[in-house]
Amino acid sequence: MTVESVQPVPPRAAEPIEPPLARGGVPGLGHGWKLVRDPLGFLARLRDEGDVVRLALGPKTVYAVTSPALTGALALSPDYKIDGPLWESLESLLGKEGVATANGPRHRRQRRIIQPAFRLDAIPAYGPVMEEEAADFAARMASGEPFDCTSESFRVAVRIAARCLLRGEYMDERAERLCVALATVFRGMYRRMVIPAGPLYRLPLPANRRFDRALADLHALVDEIIAERRASGRKPDDLLTALLEAEDDKGDPIGEQEIHDQVVAILTPGSETVASTVMWLLQVLTAHPEHADRVCAEVGSVVGDRPVAFADVRKLSHTNNVVVEAMRLRPAVWILTRRAVTETELGGYRIPAGADIVYSPYAVQRDPRSYERNLEFDPDRWLPERVKDVPKYAMSPFSVGNRKCPSDHFSMAQLTLVTAAVARRWRLEQVSGSNDTTRVGITLRPHRLLVRATPR
Ligand code: HEM
């Protein structure tokens, strides 16, 4: 062999390695009991064990991703899809044909249909409804009685989503029914996910009956809304018209079931997430009066004596920072899951095909490696001169990539307006019976927030 014939061997990329197994598993149960007992603390502590960690959940291995960079890589990679136990139980209750659970070409087609309703330039048209609902929400605090933040936050979220995206005169009465149905459905759905005791939920117990009635009413309401719009012959430029006129890949109208499931798949994530965030914003106004005062002063300087309007939102920078900081510490969507479609690699770790992956925006957004004084409520960390210190993907409450929430601008506008309208008018304090500790459900929210409003 001549010297010339020796080919240089290219340096081999290191073989992906198996992620470490998280500590503290119990034989038979693995880490499941820890996840059920203290899901937020458990997921947050995993960051000390590695960027990717294996969990044993019963007989199953689940991969937990803990670093901001890798959660971003995961959300952006085509190697993962929406699937897994969380989504399966959502599908069985809410329908299989909506955008939130679809994958591949169907998902891309559905996103194309709904996207125009959420585009930045579509949002100003919703301004008058958002302004009116934010002002009415603040006005409902005037009774002097303790204000039940749970039901009222649900009410404002459902009313804004229903009135903006589905329109129609009928929405007042329907929005109230939707509120009741969705609140009950979400409570029951979380229970069914955490304790998958199938046959028990079919027993004729009062809680099961309430859940079944609420779920049936939710589906009936959606059918009524669709039927009524069709019967009216009206085609306003809104999301419901876009869904009714949508075509599949062959150019045929999409089926009735898909239209129904799409409406459900938009209304359900749209109400619970916003409602939970509104509750945290009210909690923040009680717990941080100095920021409530700053919001009030900012709104006053922008709007003077008139009510706050949609057009003011972009000038309310401190109010916006309060909303963002509240979402950092209490992100409504606190856990997300994916499934690997193929054997792949994440941050040098091997992920087998079919593996279930889990990550927690709550854990990532509280990581002391990303945030100084990580647990402190500090809206000023979002000032332009400080925001550059926040690592990429360390703050993604709406996620990134092809499953990113379509409603980020829509949500931020309404959350900012509601916060501004309340803080401008009222000083809030919690009253006896209020419990603002974190309740873990499909979203995170305070257990039972009751406030009293006194005029400023
Ligand atoms: C504070 C408010 C909100 C937050 C924090 C939030 C958060 C999220 C997150 C994190 C996802 C991605 C889920 C994943 O990656 O698996 C998502 C998806 C989604 N959100 Fe939101 N959301 C909010 C409000 C809304 C509203 C108001 C609507 C509709 C009216 C909405 C509709 C949707 C839909 C349809 C999806 C599924 C998108 C897809 O899979 O392509 N969300 N949301």
Automatic annotation (TrEMBL):
Its cofactor is heme. One of its GO terms (molecular function) is iron ion binding. The keyword Ribonucleoprotein does not apply. Signal peptide: none annotated. The keyword Oxidoreductase applies. Residues 1-23 are annotated as: Disordered. Heme binds at residue 405. Residues 8-19 have a biased composition (Pro residues). Keywords: Heme, Iron, Metal-binding, Monooxygenase, Oxidoreductase. InterPro entries: Cyt_P450 (IPR001128), Cyt_P450_E_grp-IV (IPR002403), Cyt_P450_sf (IPR036396), Cytochrome_P450_Monoox (IPR050196). Belongs to the cytochrome P450 family. PANTHER family: BIFUNCTIONAL ALBAFLAVENONE MONOOXYGENASE_TERPENE SYNTHASE, CYTOCHROME P450 FAMILY 4. This is Epi-isozizaene 5-monooxygenase/(E)-beta-farnesene synthase.
